[in-house]
Amino acid sequence: MFDRRIRPLLTGLLANHSAVALLGPRQVGKTTLALELADERGATYLDLEREGDRAKLGDADAYLASTAGRLVVLDEVQNAPELFSTLRGVIDDRRRQGKNDAQFLILGSASPALLRQSSESLAGRIIYLDLAPLDALEVGGEPTGTTSLWTRGGFPLSFLAADDANSLLWRQGFLRTYLERDLPQLGSRLPTEVLRRLWTMLAHLQGSPLNTAKLAANVGLDGRTVNRYLSLLVDLLLVRSLAPWTANIGKRLTRSPKLYVRDSGLLHALLGIADTETLLGHPVVGASWEGFVIENLIAAAPLFSQFHFFRTSAGAEIDLLITLPDHRRWAFEIKRGANPRPSRGFYQACDDVQADARFVVYPGEERFPLGSGTEALALAAAMTLVSTG
Q1: pLDDT at position 96, please?
Q2: Can you tell me the distance from the alpha carbon of 13 to that of 26, in angstroms, rounded to the nearest whole number?
């Protein structure tokens, strides 16, 4: 259906590591990608939400011994946390036999329980990879497709829905599943409506620096509780906490992270935005576009890149600062309007951080210089540039 750009990286990791964990929200495409690889490799696939597949692991040691030499895909593995200690033993036994090829592809919805169990039992034996929703290059990079992706978000079933109404219905159901099932399973004791108010408040504050006291006051919770649930949404890869760049440059800097609902389609569902026409007239349109572009640029960046924003009290600001693996710093300003000229504060901020390259991402299609070493370019072009470093 879609060629996921992460696939070559995943294939390479499977060739060099005993266990790889592919993490991401539900319905993001983890199982589809894993099944494609499983078919190619003759792998064994187990869905641990199915009673029959869980029963096969009643004697996990014996079952996994019978799969020696084959890749085993374990889906929704957070449903069987006791399995991790068995996986550790199997991996170590095979390593002693000189077999270091891929043994397990572990899929999970990035629950804290999954991360904790795997980090304790499989430390030094597993590598993690996040699968994000569809990005602009994966859907073709054309303006029409990018606009639809921005409006509907990157969950495949939302993006591919027959029309905007059905897409919105899917996203509303997705949110309800997390609120009524997944979050309570992870220990949430708050009423569903309180959690929904918190999530909706985050949507209204898209791209704003974290103000715990303001959030807590708006949803009627204490600050500690708000921080705990924010951390949970970040762990589930549903909310991004973008950290500030805070090197000592002798200026007063913003030090609170900026929060974004990561998928633009979920953001719009939380705000009741049904289509592109409504979105373009909504007060959140600028912040929505900013978050959408940030997520796409991060998805395109090479492994081991680092991501920050930069802001001084005097108004100098960079929306996204990418530090590439070779330590070059690329600064991005994100503009929704037709005029992509950056603010004076962007130029000052680039000087402050000693940016090696400066770009303005805007909805147009042309690439052209803006002066002072800055270029304007479309999102797809920016992603291609970032992906090649």
Answers
A1: 81
A2: 22
Question: How do residues 2-41 score in pLDDT, each as one tens digit?
Answer: 889 999 999 999 888 888 999 999 999 999 999 998 888 8
Mention every residue, 6+ apart, whose C-beta is less than 8 A from residue 205.
Answer: 211, 215, 259
- The answer to whether 328 and 357 are in contact (CB under 8 A) is yes
Amino acid of residue 349 = A
The position carrying tokens 């095979």 is: 94
**DSSP string over 101-144:** S--EEEEE---HHHHHHHHHHSTTTEEEEE-PSP-TTTTT--HH
Question: What's the pLDDT tens digit per position in 231-243?
Answer: 889 988 999 999 9
101 confidence band (pLDDT: 50, 70, 90): low
Q: How confident is the model at residue 114 (pLDDT cuts 50, 70, 90)?
A: low
Write down the number of H helices and E strands in the chain: 18, 13
Residues 6+ apart with CB under 8 A from 388: none
Strand partners, 360: 333, 376
Query: Residue 316 and residue 312: Cα distance in Å, rounded?
Result: 5
Give 307-345 as a 3 state SS string: EEEEEECCCCEEEEEEECCCCCEEEEEECCCCCCCCCHH
Q: Beta-carbon neighbour count of residue 217 at 10 Å?
A: 12
Domains of the chain in sequence order = 7-130 (3.40.50.300), 143-388 (1.10.10.10)
User: What is the distance of C-alpha 218 from the center of its chain?
Assistant: 26
